[in-house]
Write the structure tokens for this entry.
Amino acid sequence: MTFHEMRFPANLSFGSVGGPERRTDIVTLANGYEERNTPWAHSRRRYDAGVSMRSLDDIETLIAFFEARHGQIYGFRWKDWSDFKSCLASKEPAQADQVIGTGDEETTAFQLSKSYRSGAYSYRRPIAKPVAGSVRVAIEGVEQLEGVHYEVDTATGFVHFAHPPNAGMQVTAGFEFDVPVRFDTDSIQTNVASFRAGDVPHVPVVEVRV
């Protein structure tokens, strides 16, 4: 698989610009009404890694990371500082943050996910790249022990239980997570004089499906 389980330096992604993107097809009818549809079930995030460059050392680190990923070839992890927890940014992840499934006495694998709610509406986002050591899991509010009751696949975001949860029991989790991305360019252009004058390079990064 063309993905490196390595995070872009978090200190360099701090301050970057970006966020979720949706794709909507809009058709305006003869009577003025609209029909709106989307081919995407999930949003896709885009960022600019160049905005947060603050020194020539940062540029050198960026270039080394870019070269090691062979440009757009290999994906990598990205910390989105505006959205990297299963809970509010001001809190620490807890085992009851997100409902990830319900036991049926057969299923042993549950995909981590995060729900975004506004009023009566919500969107459930699959989480494929949890941060190792940050995942907490509970069954019916009782916290389970990683390595004893369950294992976490940090490359896919699945929680694997040693034994399937009993029927009707709610499975919840709390965690930190990264976004799987790749560079959206095969070139990085820098100018030392311009950089010192405040003109930072444009380095687009885009989320990938894994």
The first strand starts at residue 3 and ends at 7. Helices lie at 10-13, 56-68, 192-196. The mean pLDDT is 93.
